[in-house]
Write a structure and sequence with these properties.
Rossmann fold; 8 helices; alpha/beta
Length: 224
């Protein structure tokens, strides 16, 4: 059941999409079709940086820079690692809303492990996370950024309305617990795994309804 939460300033003028680890902006294929009245842009977090030395702060700065170039107000939407990047960037951007699709959890949810050593270089995301879906391109990802996530990145609050979307794969650690931390509206999609959240048309449609809801209560969970 979703908590009642409202958007403070109506729909955004633009929506910035932020991909996950080892993927890229191509994971958001067909997303623009679900938001015909909003400018939709997707960022490539690897563009213009040395991925082997890239930090989460580097990624957050890239998001803030890209968001500043879009029509305002802007909403930020991040999937997986991109969700944590969005949380980090939100303080710089001042978005009208934040949308998190099973985000990598902040330290306030997963805890802090100072024993994790920060490493430079890259890793193969399919070797670490498992095979990507057929036709979905993967690429080397920053070992440094992954170590920072495992050590714990703190984002204690967000200052705008937020939506947390989750399925069955990470229902608690990347869904309910994150939503509880930020007092977010929740959208639960039974049966969907982590990848399906970013590829599913019903998920996109539900997010579009939430963004259109303006000062009206946000939609309830997908399972009623």
């Amino acid at each position: 059941m979703a908590r009642a939460r409202v958007l403070a300033s109506g729909p955004p003028a633009s929506l910035l999409l932020v991909h996950g680890a080892g993927s890229g902006p191509w994971v958001f294929r067909r997303w623009a079709e679900a938001f015909p009245s909003i400018m939709v842009a997707s960022i490539d977090l690897h563009a213009g940086i040395d991925v082997a030395r890239a930090s989460h702060a580097d990624y957050a700065r890239s998001v803030a820079h890209a968001a500043a170039a879009l029509p305002q107000p802007v909403s930020l939407c991040g999937w997986s690692m991109g969700g944590l990047v969005v949380l980090q960037a939100s303080g710089r951007v001042g978005p009208c809303s934040v949308i998190l699709l099973e985000p990598s959890p902040p330290a306030e949810v997963q805890g802090i492990n100072p024993a994790v050593q920060i490493e430079y270089g890259t890793f193969d995301p399919e070797g670490t996370y498992g095979p990507f879906p057929p036709g979905m391109q993967s690429r080397p990802e920053s070992s440094r950024a992954r170590a920072e996530r495992k050590r714990g990145i703190s984002v204690s609050s967000v200052s705008c309305p937020s939506l947390v979307v989750y399925g069955d794969e990470f229902r608690e650690p990347r869904g309910r617990l994150v939503a509880r931390l930020y007092n977010s509206t929740e959208l639960y999609f039974p049966g969907l795994d982590h990848w399906e959240l970013v590829r599913s048309a019903p998920v996109r449609a539900a997010i579009a309804r939430w963004l259109r809801s303006g000062l009206n209560p946000a939609p309830r969970c997908a399972d009623g």
